[in-house]
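Hi, here's the filled form for the chain we discussed.

Project: internal
Contact: R.S.
Residues: 440
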Amino acid sequence: MLLIYTPDITERIKYTFALFFNQLIRVNYLITSSEEEFAQYKGNKFSYASENIFGSALYFISTSLLFETDISEYHPSGITGQIDGRELIGFFEVNESPMPFDVFASAFYLVSRYEEYVTGKHDHFGRYKDEHSIAQHCGFLGKPMVNYYAFAVKSILQKYFPDLKFEEPKFSVLNTVDVDMAWKYKHKGFYRNTSGFVRDLINRRFDLIKERFEILVLRKNDPFHSFDYLIAQSKSQQIPLCFFWLLGSYAELDKNINRENAHFKSLMKRVDAESDSGIHFSFKGHHQKKSFGDELASLEKTLGRKVTKNRYHFLKFDIAKSLYKLINLGIKEEYSFGYSAHSGFRASIASPFYWFDLTLNQQTDLLIRPLIFMDATIRYHKPMSDEKIMQYIDALLQKTHAVNGQFIALWHNDIFDDSKNDWKMIFEWFNKRAAALIHS
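And the returned structure, exactly as it came back:
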């Protein structure tokens, strides 16, 4: 057992130590604010305080962040350190401590997305811009830095306390699929197909006119209808699979099939019987009071069960406003924590974690499962060859595997209609590579 002394057991202290010692480097621990209890304890222990008041005992010097209750205008600079040959970049400089920065405050700052509350810099869709993140500025957006912090703390503790026992989490992989449009042509109705035909005619897209005719009249397979393939490939390597269904009313950025369409309902029920499902809250729903509730109710009615997982369409959410909407609707797991233009680690962590609401200064029960790779990042922002894509994904896979994290990949059912890359080959390679790492 590990005893930790800190002069004030705040909500942020409890949250951060639980993140480290319950989730990332699992070890039995207790926190105390009693100097007498800590001084008399003969077992493994360390203190976290602004000064060392216990002489030879292991201590980590603290800064003020975890003892505060409000949101301040922090704009920290990166501080470099090295533990066991691994370079670390943290914040909030300290002296006479095992690390040159406050490792616990650094982790809290990154995982709580503190900067997203204070900078307010968004793109034209209203999303926090990755280019303004401190991870991007310091060059570690592609690294699970908080996991690295935890491993560094574990290394320090093992040197001081060789008998301290840790339980390692297991590396895992999850395939997720955002269903923004279940069919390219089928089941869209007369008006949408007619307007699509006219648009293609005006733009002289005779290839699309021919394709539309072959699918609607000659009954060829719709190119977006890849559900059986996705399920079969994931099952072949025993990789779990979850589909997120967009059910918002038709709008400029929400263009799925009508949620009352019988074919669409049948598809959702059939797919859910062989995988898992979540709601894909619509873009327009952010501006309509009851939209999210209606979308969720529709999916639950179709599937005949409660749905507790969400990913926001376009990855659009506001850290200070959007997540409490999920809690109020009974959502338990959130899958939107990624950037559209960059794969990597938005919260600098490769493991699930509970959302800490800085506005109310308290931990919530909403579990965040960070997104690490998305096919649309390549398709729309970072085009590259098939070989480069696999190298890109593999580097992220290996970094996640090295810290026993969870690698969540986001695919779209329409990706295989993209002629610029061989996405079927990439998807099959990914599943085999992920399975190999799971069993290594």
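Let me know if anything looks off before we file it.
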